[in-house]
Design a protein that fits this description.
Blueprint lengths: L1 H9 L21 H8 L2 H13 L2 H20 L11 H78 L1
Helix pairs in contact: 2-5, 3-5
């Protein structure tokens, strides 16, 4: 009976120590588009819309067709010459268009830069959260490795005793 008690003591494993369960204590991850969209004023949305339209192929093609028609109609005189060559009136209209659209495009680009900064900050926060969670996972894996090593040692010891008994 004493041999059985000694055998039971040798074959018992100490209770494994695992880290406490991880509790998320951070705010939910923010969507950059929603954060930036909440901050936009009507003028900012308008300048973004203008920048998106002016910076597109349909606008470039449409404006090119319009300018070509302007020049053809004034050179051939199908209608009266309202803007004869060198098309001073057309140059004036293009200058006005550029004078008004350039600042709007620049405002839109500035907002894109602000959006990029917000996105970089949110990425940084996500990376910090991920680092914390990975650290917890690694601690848990280390505790599991220790427990598995103890289990393996017990199994090896039990197999050795069984061989001795037989």
């Amino acid at each position: 009976m004493a041999a059985t008690a000694d055998h039971d003591k040798e074959c018992t494993m100490k209770h494994p120590v695992f880290p406490p369960p991880y509790r998320r204590e951070h705010d939910p991850i923010k969507n950059v588009n929603e954060v930036v969209k909440k901050q936009l004023t009507a003028g900012q949305r308008a300048s973004d819309w203008i920048a998106a339209k002016i910076g597109s192929w349909p606008f470039i093609i449409g404006q090119s067709v319009l300018l070509a028609l302007w020049a053809i109609l004034n050179i051939t005189a199908w209608l009266r010459h309202w803007d004869p060559y060198p098309f001073i009136f057309m140059n004036l209209l293009l200058s006005l268009q550029a004078a008004y659209t350039a600042p709007m495009i620049m405002m839109s680009q500035n907002r894109a830069a602000v959006r990029d900064r917000v996105e970089a900050h949110i990425d940084y926060e996500v990376n910090l959260m991920a680092e914390t969670e990975i650290k917890v996972i690694l601690e848990n894996l280390e505790a599991q490795n220790i427990a598995m090593a103890e289990i393996h040692k017990l199994i090896v010891d039990m197999q050795a005793r069984n061989k001795e008994e037989t």
